[in-house]
TrEMBL record:
Organismal lineage: Bacteria, Bacillati, Bacillota, Bacillota incertae sedis, Caldicellulosiruptorales
GO molecular function: membrane insertase activity
Positions of transmembrane segments: 33-53, 96-119, 173-192, 224-243
Compartment(s) where it occurs, according to its Swiss-Prot or TrEMBL record: Cell membrane; Membrane
Name of the protein in question: YidC/Oxa1 family membrane protein insertase
Main localization, broad class: membrane
Amino acid sequence: MNPTWLDFLAIPLGRLLKLIYDFLHGAHIPGSYGIAIILLTLIVRGLLLPLYIKQIASTSKMAEVAPRIQEIQQKYKGDQRKMQEEMLKLYQETGYNPAGGCWPLLVQVPILFALYYVFQNPLVYVLGKSHQYVRDLVQGKAGYAITQIIINEAQKLGLDMHFFGINLAQKELIVLPILSAATMFLSIWFSTNSQKRFNPQYSQSQSNAMAEGMNRTMMIFSPLMSYFIALQVPAGLVVYWTVTNLFSILQQFIANEVVYKKLKHKKEEEEKKKQLENQAKMQQGKDGVNKEQEKLGKESSDEDLEKQGQADQEKEEEQKREEQMRKKELEKLKQQMTRSQGSSKKKKK
């Protein structure tokens, strides 16, 4: 009955439970304490919803990167340092955080322990009595007698903790433990089947096959553990745990219908975008080749024209030289004829 390090969490949870209980009890709703626990569970799970959404995204991303992780492990199995470097690069490239799926569980554990104190000692955490008040009340008592004194005192102070005939401050050995185990089994089974449904490559890799084997083991041992733990704790905590399991099933259903489908659609859009980018790059490559060919063809035509021009010029110069030679030969013939005519006249004289 001493303060615990979880009082910072147990006290606000107990006060919130009392606030909900007062509202329901004031409205004369039967089983107000049990309904208040259910509503408190829904509020806690609602506050944890962002973490759960991140967990879903992390699980989906894990299935995507698992084949690439296996490739890296196989390729660098003899070089651990290089393997770690490549793994870090992969995580940075894909935005995958291996610890991203653990946060809901890590946050859930202290809440669960804090609620254990709330349901075990409602005088302190629900009704706001001091630890010294409870110590004085149970002084000299031990075991079950302490629990019974606390229940009776809480009842005197107006806190009715009965729910469908079950006192939620005491242990319940039949109905609630079975419900806890059954809902735990359904939650794990539904989650496992959802992973198979939305991650087609889930069972194609060795690591996912190992994960599936672990899930099968959890599907057997977790409900059994849930059942035996439920036999040892106040029934109020078992109600919280059972509602948590049901809420997890509902969350998984909503995730399947909304989040996973949205992620799947986003993935398909990204693949289409990559295909379009690849097609655009291929088209740019073809255009570049065509332009290069056109450029080479144009340069070739210019060179041919230049050669043709040079040939025409040479031909024209050759014609000019031939014309000049013909003119020179004509002048020589004229001179010879003139000289022959002059010599003939001299002979006649």
